[in-house]
Structure formats: structure tokens, C-alpha cells
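hey
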């Protein structure tokens, strides 16, 4: 089964509640919520108050991606404000095993992310600690970027390693430049969670695009 997690970075920030409603009506499974601190990535985005408001408003699970330094300092607050899943980067300054274990202890799904320049093998030590690996197919920090094909081999390597370890239920999520053209490539490689922004929010028919993504299963 393919899950679709529309990226709120591509939504109209003045109408985020309506954006959640529209994506839910179109068939979204989660909402992707990018958190940026201006340090780990050169941009700023949503924070705790926005997550609190949206999680109280929408029934869609909030797929929270922390693109921040020292994520362990904030995971309890993001869990409290409604995160369904919390993703942290292998590249962030943090005790990663401890952070992932703490996320699970809070009743939230833990996930780990790798940037385009980070090899798939960097996530291997943490596979038994997470429910999902997020592969960035663009440099994190800004929406609307072009898909980087290097992600395909990394997705395949991660799926192969998960299968080798018997982790057949592991989600592999991909974020960046996901369109009708690139989605089949990443699904064929082993991804089963698609983060899409412009392809959904700028689509003439978001429900048709969502259905096209899910039909790749």
C-alpha cells in the first residue's frame, strides 16, 4: 500500500486548515509538517503553535519532520502537540539512538532521515529503532526543488537491507520533487510513503493525482 503525505510547505500559509481539509478530501493519509530552525537548514518554517492548532483541527496524522539541530530538546513538546510520527536526521547534532528511543517512549512513531549527500548505509545502525526511514530527494530547506535521482539507489539499498533483517513492515518515505513522473521510480525502488507538495497543491485535480500515486502499489 502506498501512503501519501502532502507537504504543507506547498500550501497557502494563510489557509492551512483548509489545506488539510482539501488534502483529506482528496485521499491523503498523513500531512507532512516540516520544521526548520534556520541553522540545520537555511530556512524557517512551522513550529509548535502551528502544529498544536492543526492537530486539534484536523484528524489527519501529522508526519513531523524535524530539520533542526539538537532535536532531542524538542521531541517531547512536538509529541505533546500532536505529532503522529517524528523524523530526525542522522546528520543532526544529537544522541540519535537515545532520541529515537525517547520518541517511541512518548507514544510517537520514530523515524530517521538522510540528506541527498548522505549514504543509505548511514541509516543502517538505526533500522531496529525506527518505523520509517525518510530519504530526501532534494536538499532539505525549500520546497519546489527538482528531484535528485541519487535517491533511487538509496531507497533500493534501504529496502534490501530492511528485507535482509526481516523488517518487512518498515516504511521508506521519500520527499522532494515527487511528481507523476518520479513517483513510479521511487515506488519501484521500494518507497511506500510519498511526500508531495507542488504536485498535489497545484494540481487541477488533487484527488486524481493522489489516486495515481496510490495505484503504484
Amino acid at each position: 500500500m502506498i501512503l501519501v503525505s502532502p507537504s504543507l510547505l506547498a500550501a497557502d500559509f494563510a489557509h492551512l486548515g483548509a489545506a488539510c481539509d482539501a488534502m483529506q478530501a482528496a485521499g491523503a493519509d498523513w500531512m507532512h509538517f516540516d520544521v526548520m530552525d534556520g541553522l540545520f537548514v537555511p530556512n524557517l518554517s512551522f513550529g509548535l503553535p502551528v502544529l498544536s492548532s492543526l492537530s486539534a483541527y484536523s484528524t489527519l496524522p501529522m508526519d513531523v519532520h524535524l530539520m533542526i539541530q539538537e532535536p532531542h530538546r524538542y521531541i517531547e513538546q512536538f509529541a505533546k502537540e500532536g505529532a503522529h510520527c517524528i523524523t530526525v536526521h542522522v546528520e543532526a547534532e544529537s544522541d540519535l539512538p537515545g532520541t529515537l528511543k525517547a520518541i517511541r517512549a512518548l507514544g510517537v512513531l520514530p523515524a530517521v532521515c538522510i540528506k541527498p549527500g548522505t549514504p543509505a548505509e548511514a541509516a543502517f545502525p538505526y533500522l531496529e529503532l525506527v518505523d520509517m526511514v525518510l530519504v530526501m530527494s532534494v536538499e532539505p530547506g525549500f520546497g519546489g526543488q527538482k528531484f535528485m535521482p541519487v535517491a533511487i539507489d538509496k531507497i533500493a539499498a534501504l529496502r534490501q537491507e530492511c528485507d535482509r533483517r526481516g523488517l518487512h513492515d518498515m516504511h521508506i518515505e521519500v520527499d522532494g520533487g515527487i511528481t507523476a513522473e518520479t513517483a513510479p521510480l521511487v515506488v519501484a525502488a521500494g518507497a511506500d510513503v510519498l511526500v508531495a507538495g507542488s504536485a498535489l497543491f497545484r494540481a487541477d485535480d488533487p484527488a486524481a493525482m493522489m489516486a495515481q500515486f496510490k495505484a503504484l502499489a
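The longest strand covers residues 83-89. Helices lie at 16-26, 48-57, 75-80, 96-105, 150-164, 183-189, 198-201, 206-214.
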